[in-house]
Amino acid sequence: MTELVIVSGKGGTGKTSLVGSLAALSENKVMVDCDVDAADLHLILNNRVQETIEFIGGKGASIVNEKCTNCGICLDYCRFDAIKHESHPENGDEERYWIDKHACEGCAVCVRNCPEQAIDFNEIVSGEWYLSDTPYGPLVHARLGIAQANSGKLVSVLRKQALLLAEQRGLDLILIDGPPGIGCPVIASITGTGYVLVVTEPSMSAMHDMERLLQLTAHFGIPTGICINKCDINPELSSQIEEKARKLNLPVHGRIRHDEAVTRAQLNQKSVVENGDSPAARDIRALWEGVKNAIS
Amino acid sequence: MKIAIASGKGGTGKTTIATNMAVAIAKEGRDVAYVDCDVEEPNGHIFLKPEIKEQYDATVLVPHVDLNKCTLCGDCSAACVFNAIAVLGKTVEVFPSICHSCGGCSDVCPENAIDDIPRTIGHISRGVGMGVQFYEGRLNVGEAISPPVTKALRKLDTNSEVIIIDAPPGTSCPVIEAISGTDYVILVTEPTPFGLNDLKLAVGMVQEIGLPHGIVINRSDIGDGKTEEFCHRQNLDILMTIPFDRRIAEAYSRGEMMSDVNSEYERRFWELYSSIAEKVSP
């Protein structure tokens, strides 16, 4: 069984459109959408949610005003500027302390140091995750609550669930749609996978971001290949990407032409390869043959 | 005035709009700063081509255990909710990459054997490019936790009259760190199903933290009308629409400004800024 993860560094290079097509072209697999902040893969996979499970990301502190004596000790201890203090006697408002839940990292330092035990520390539901059926196989996806932390932890939950499903059902491939960037959720999406496919495009920005991502995959020692999307927007930079790949000894699995068919397919809630013939669809089919060989 | 540029979906044009707007404001003779808070993948420098004048380390505090004082009692490990410190055999192991720098371990240590020492996780650069004060945060490759770099960068906030903050994509903690405390958030989207789905999440985010916001629809003619319908239904201000233009996409790929292709855009971005300034302080 192989875990294949599609990432890009820069956002909007076409990860999800490509994963949708690979879902249609590959066999015997489970799909995972690890872009838990902004999950879109289900929009083109015609999914039906079978199970919804709460995600407990961690714990958070909250001040019980009835017990609080406004001593302010918690304020001195908090390193995240999460304790807020309000005192407007001029308005007749009572002085009070409260916790900004977006700033609180759930470290419990204030809870331990409160002399009145006036700070509660409870589990926080910071999102939910789903098991869906699709015509292409099972899909594991999620929705991180708005403005929540712990996206890396949620990614790990999804990957664990996909592995379990693959074992139970004897599936050969775990197809992972990764998030943008190089931080916590990306690291959680790629560590321990069998192959990373980097989707880039011929722009200075995307190349810059790809280079940082390639340093990351090299750092973790994960086999990596490259795919150049919208390759004809700047043919010269596309050649530079290929040159770069040669120097790093990384395969370029495919070049996908800029094609309005990609947006048309999305509007039809379909993958590119299932929405009629188009240059992009042909390029993606060719790409999949190369990737299939690389991961087998 | 602080204006943040954010979006749920990546690649919708945040950096394009942030840099072009900053340059348009500078050309009107205003003192403007551009702050690149996409610290995992900062791209603003490609367009503003700044001359870097200063660089600082962005650091976080991590525990350092003095084993001469340590009695291996394990209180530190029990206090750490992030599992970043553990007693293993006759030593104490610290896992700096997952440490949140809360200070919990040094606080509980009965022997005062734990000190906080700085650890570099990224860099902050300051310079000037195209008449714009330039600030950038850059997370070191391999580091997982980016918000402290953004926090350090935001603390440098300048006295410039206008501060443009380029946020990372998404709706979670790195974005919140970038946009909190700003006067207005521009949400950039494109009129596709993915763009709309992620716009809804981004609107939820700015409403949850209570910041005034408006929408810019980029590549406004590539998809369908559902994004505009959504904006009308939700009473969201559409501040600007930018049609797809292959020449702009090509110029972008080379790291050039939109006004290099079509000089109209300088005026349009100044108008975008003016309309926001009007809303924030009428």
What does this structure look like?
The complex is a heterodimer of chains A (296) and B (282). Chain A has 296 residues and is α/β, with parallel strands linked by helices. Chain A folds into two domains: 2-46 and 135-295, 3-Layer(aba) Sandwich (Rossmann fold), CATH 3.40.50.300; 59-124, Alpha-Beta Plaits (2-Layer Sandwich), CATH 3.30.70. Helix content of chain A is 34%, strand content 27%. Chain A has a nine-stranded mixed β-sheet, sandwiched between helices. In chain A, 54% of the residues are buried. The mean pLDDT of chain A is 95. Chain B has 282 residues and is an alpha/beta fold. Chain B has two domains: 2-49 and 130-280, Rossmann fold (3-Layer(aba) Sandwich); 60-120, Alpha-Beta Plaits (2-Layer Sandwich). Chain B contains eleven helices and eleven strands. Chain B has helices at 14-27, 44-48, 75-79, 104-108, 147-155, 173-179, 193-209, 226-233, 246-253, 258-261, 264-280; strands at 2-6, 32-36, 51-65, 85-88, 91-94, 114-129, 132-139, 162-166, 184-189, 213-218, 238-242. In chain B, the strands form two sheets. Chain B has a nine-stranded mixed β-sheet, sandwiched between helices. Chain B has a two-stranded antiparallel ribbon with strand order 4-5. In chain B, a hairpin with a 2-residue loop joins strand 4 and strand 5. Chain B starts with a strand and ends with a helix. At the A-B interface, helix 3, helix 5, helix 6 and helix 8 of A face helix 4, helix 6, helix 7 and helix 9 of B.
